[in-house]
Design goal:
about 425 residues, Immunoglobulin-like, seven-stranded parallel β-sheet, TIM Barrel, alpha/beta
């Protein structure tokens, strides 16, 4: 953990979490295909893969001991299933060889919701996980799994305490239900090292879709403004790092359940990434509809998926995440902070898609405009001049645009664009 308690470090180096949601990797891909997937992600800058160890069986799925239905969970860790766990370990080791981490979910939330994980077997399962993975240096743990922490807080608390006691050097988080954060239930728990929220897959105009999904309306509704979760969680005491662990996936229906709705596109996933990171998140997790379920591997398709996982490896949004990571490492993001105060004039209303985020420190300033609108920056105490560059988040290209001082308000007008959307990143670098 960085000294500011907001970012992660790996030894002495800052660690920017660039995650991918590969929930069903261990259940649905062969070793060969899994390694192909991992190498593709490594080449694109991803360094954390979020995957489930035990899930509930889905309709039309082939039989799998790690997708349980009406069974005691402990049967999945019995000696006759050792071949599965050996495959998991092989892939964990392969990832380690290539500088990648796994954020492992011991179970998906439905396993607990259906009563397969409970107070009578949770400690035995935690002991098995410690025995299997305690010597693996590239493991992080995520409890929950698209589930509310208040449905069984004692269970998750026992699980978190047990994992932290057995593997104190491994980070532990909690993947919550859509439109909620782990901070809502577990922020004060010693085992929770960072907060994760799921901004989810809904548009601004989709606050309520189905009764089962909207049973808890007491939480604030932020719509697509995932940056608001970051500010909410960073305001809690004690300070803990925060990340969006599941924003809208590329090529999934808006609202998730109705494939007649428009699908989220690459420019949407870029927006979620830049909005959260430039608000102070310690990284970001990307997702693609075809990859999280590994469509095309012989399992029943869900959520209107329109591509195979092998095709989705090359999707535009996933390929563009690396440019954000590279930029954050360049500006030494661990020394930066949100700098909305230099946006001029101050925002009077919540601008939604027109939101401009400003982030940085004296030597580097970064601003992101999703809609391509112009904006002004004013830093009255500025004593240095800045070289200014427009960065296209679609391809990472840079275009020098001039030398500026911010001691008076300066208006920045993004250039015309012939790519798939109008978002731009402005980078200001202190003149040597």
């Amino acid at each position: 953990m960085h000294s500011n308690q907001t970012y992660l470090v790996n030894g002495d180096e800052p660690f920017f979490w660039l995650g991918d949601t590969a929930w069903t990797l261990f259940q649905r891909l062969s070793i060969h295909h899994a390694k192909t997937y991992l190498m593709n992600r490594k080449e694109k800058g991803f360094n954390v893969i979020q995957s489930i160890l035990i899930n509930v069986a889905h309709k039309n799925d082939p039989v799998s001991h790690q997708q349980i239905e009406n069974e005691d969970l402990l049967k999945t860790i019995a000696p006759e299933n050792r071949q599965y766990w050996d495959r998991v370990v092989e892939l964990v080791d392969f990832a380690a060889e290539h500088g990648m981490y796994f954020a492992l979910l011991p179970v998906w939330g439905k396993v607990a919701k259906k009563g397969f994980l409970h107070a009578r077997n949770v400690e035995a399962y935690a002991d098995f996980l410690a025995e299997t993975f305690k010597d693996k240096p590239n493991i992080l743990w995520l409890l929950g799994g698209d589930t509310r922490g208040d449905l069984d807080p004692e269970l998750w608390d026992v699980f978190g305490q047990k994992l932290k006691a057995s593997m104190p050097d491994m980070l532990v988080g909690y993947h919550p239900f859509g439109r909620t954060s782990s901070s809502y239930w577990f922020h004060d728990k010693d085992w929770l090292d960072f907060n994760m929220f799921q901004s989810g897959h809904r548009r601004y105009d989709q606050p309520a879709l189905q009764s089962w999904d909207d049973a808890y309306a007491q939480e604030p509704w932020y719509g697509e403004d995932n940056w608001q979760y970051v500010l909410h969680d960073l305001a809690q005491t004690p300070t803990k790092p925060v990340i969006d662990g599941e924003p809208s996936y590329e090529q999934i229906p808006q609202g998730l359940h109705d494939s007649s709705e428009p699908y989220w596109q690459a420019h949407h996933v870029r927006r979620y990434a830049y909005w959260s990171v430039l608000s102070g998140a310690f990284g970001h997790t990307y997702g693609h509809n075809a990859i999280f379920q590994f469509n095309g591997s012989g399992f029943g398709p869900e959520y209107g998926v329109n591509a195979t996982w092998a095709e989705a490896l090359h999707a535009s949004g996933g390929s563009q995440m690396q440019y954000l990571k590279e930029l954050m490492l360049e500006i030494r993001f661990q020394e930066c902070e949100q700098m909305q105060s230099i946006l001029y004039p101050e925002e009077v209303e919540e601008p939604k898609e027109d939101k401009v985020l400003v982030f940085g420190r004296d030597q580097h300033l970064v601003a992101y405009t999703y809609s391509g609108k112009s904006f002004s920056l004013h830093k009255p105490d500025a004593t240095m001049n800045y070289k200014a560059y427009w960065i296209d988040p679609v391809n990472g290209s840079r275009s020098y645009t001039g030398l500026y001082s911010l001691n008076e308000a300066v208006s920045f007008q993004p250039p015309p664009k012939d790519t798939d959307f109008t978002d731009w990143v402005l980078l200001l670098v202190e003149l040597d």
